[in-house]
TrEMBL record, chain A:
Species, as recorded: Erythranthe guttata
Family matches, as CDD domains: F-box_AtFBL13-like
Sequence ranges assigned to domain F-box in this UniProt record: 17-65
Residues spanning the membrane: none
Identification of the protein by name: F-box domain-containing protein
Origin organism lineage: Eukaryota, Viridiplantae, Streptophyta, Embryophyta, Tracheophyta
TrEMBL record, chain B:
Name of the protein described by the UniProt record: SKP1-like protein
Signal peptide positions on this chain: none
Subunit structure: Part of a SCF (SKP1-cullin-F-box) protein ligase complex.
Alphabetized UniProt keyword annotations: Ubl conjugation pathway
Length: 343, 163
């Protein structure tokens, strides 16, 4: 009897044991595309069939925080110098080894600000490394590109994070620079200027989403063009941002921390970050309601963030008060067709 | 077309073990393979799907109906997909990924691939070999060399939980 069960078990195991092997290589590669490149590369050790599969994934998504530590509290800590250097080396090693002709997404999330708050000059990311990553994105014809160097896990951060220089000359230098397939571009903590933004808008006819955070070089941005298909524009935490000119037929969501002068009929959702219930903020919110005639949703976000104003991010007014005050201030003024959301 | 006549067009799909299934055209065209047949006018009679068995096809059709009933709301679609896949064992997932690939249904293909990838995440080489029945065909020397070459990928691996 027990032998019978054993035989049955064995045959079931045999069936089970055939399970992943019956998938063809292209499906295994599709599966590996959902792993981080480092996780995917580890599958080389499984068997000879797997040794090069990871080199053909369609997505390269590097996150300096993922896979470095098991427990969540350690994840919140900033990366040490050694870890940061190692991370950049690994990224570059993967890029050299990877063999896919094109990629669907190329994402690098990495905190460049140092492990010590007082030392701003100890970062390990050089502008030539960023250039190299942009070159790679261009060569692999990526539709989704994100270079995100924000210290995102340290929410208590109360000092300016480091930003990385953007290689502006790279965009014009080479005729082989081609970002035509770009659909979504995210640049965070990189000092990209208005000219570069306009370069992407001009040269990426498919661009639907553009997100720029924490650029010190951005003061004027012009998002204008009848052929633009841009749907989502987000320009936040850029300290010197003075003017955004927006004339784009497809825009449906806009998020900005500096917001004067966007009359736009298609705008439906407006998110107001860094709302502190001051008179100027109320005026700005009214401005949105008056000028965006088709606005459907106004989101007020009173949570603190960095650099919107030259004051410490911890507001003297408790956030709960800001919330209740903004409800008082705006609740009565928001027309019925507009949904008011206070975060 | 369904929208014009007001009566939904129904297609008949046939699995490779000769089971027949009726499905609304509007749901079935989530499969690019089927959509192409409809557009080419080849979907009049029974559509044979030679690479999909009845059990898997039934499941895929449940998914087609479920997801197409959700209006354009990516969040809701995602939570439907998560729920739909949550109780599937690996064998079923492998059948589904093959079917999704054959039927050219990228949303299902991605969801199942992501689900399988999730299982492998942070797991040791030995664990993945056991779980997925992968035979180690390296000689001890070869394995040592591959391991050495990929040493940098071994950080953050969890301790096996199947011993």
């Amino acid at each position: 009897m027990s032998e019978e069960i054993d035989a049955e078990f064995q045959s079931k195991m045999k069936l089970d044991n055939d399970r992943i092997n019956r998938l063809p290589d292209d499906i295994l590669v599709a599966i590996l595309s959902f792993l981080s490149p480092i996780e995917a590369a580890r599958t080389s050790v499984l068997s000879s069939r797997w040794i090069n599969l990871w080199k053909h994934t369609s997505s390269l998504k590097f996150d300096a925080y993922i896979g470095r530590a098991v427990d969540a509290t350690a994840n919140r800590k900033k990366l040490s110098e050694v870890e940061r250097g190692k991370f950049v080396n690994r990224v570059n090693f993967v890029l050299q080894s990877h063999e896919a002709v094109t990629l669907n997404e190329f994402i690098i999330r990495y905190d460049i600000s140092g492990s010590d708050k007082r030392r701003y000059d100890d970062y390990t990311l050089r502008v030539d490394e960023v250039t190299q990553w942009l070159e790679y994105a261009s060569a692999k014809k990526v539709p989704i590109l994100e270079l995100n160097f924000s210290p995102k896990y340290d929410e208590s951060l109360s000092y300016p994070g480091l930003t990385c220089a953007f290689p502006h000359e790279f965009l014009t230098r080479s005729t082989s620079v081609d970002f035509t397939p770009l659909k979504a571009l995210t640049l965070k903590y990189i000092d990209v200027d208005g000219g570069a933004i306009e370069f992407f808008l001009r040269n990426c006819p498919l661009l639907e989403e553009l997100t720029v955070h924490e650029s010190k070089e951005l003061s004027d941005v012009s998002v204008c063009g009848t052929s633009l298909v841009l749907k989502h524009l987000e320009i936040c935490y850029c300290r010197d941002l003075k003017c955004v000119r927006l004339h784009s037929p497809s825009i449906s969501t806009l998020k900005s921390t500096m917001s004067t002068g966007f009359p736009h009929e298609q705008l439906k959702v407006v998110k107001f970050c860094g709302y502190r219930a001051r008179e100027i903020h109320v005026r700005l919110a009214r401005y949105f309601l008056e000028n965006f005639v088709n606005i459907e949703k106004l989101i007020i976000d009173p949570r603190p963030f960095f650099f919107t104003e030259q004051i410490p991010p911890v507001s003297s007014i408790p956030i709960e008060n800001v919330r209740s005050r903004s409800r008082e201030q705006l609740g009565a003024e928001v027309p019925e067709r507009v949904e008011l959301v206070i975060l | 077309m369904a929208a014009e006549t007001g009566t939904p067009t129904t297609l008949t799909l046939k699995s490779n073990d000769d089971e027949l299934f009726s499905v609304a055209e509007s749901a079935a065209i989530l499969s690019v393979t089927i959509r192409n047949m409809v557009e080419d006018g080849c979907a009049g009679g029974v559509i044979p799907l030679d690479n999909v068995d009845g059990k898997t096809l039934a499941s895929v059709i449940t998914y087609m109906n479920g997801i197409s009933a959700i209006p354009a709301d990516e969040e809701k679609k995602k939570s439907y997909r998560d729920k739909f896949l949550s109780d599937k064992d690996f064998e079923t997932l492998a059948d589904m990924v093959l079917a999704a690939n054959y039927l050219n249904m990228s949303c299902l293909m991605d969801a199942v691939s992501a689900k399988i990838a999730q299982v492998m995440e942070k797991k040791s080489v030995g664990w993945v070999r056991r779980k997925f029945g992968i035979e180690n065909d390296y000689t001890p020397e070869e394995e040592a060399a591959v391991k050495e070459e990929h040493k940098w990928t071994f950080e953050g691996v969890e301790t096996d939980d199947d011993n």
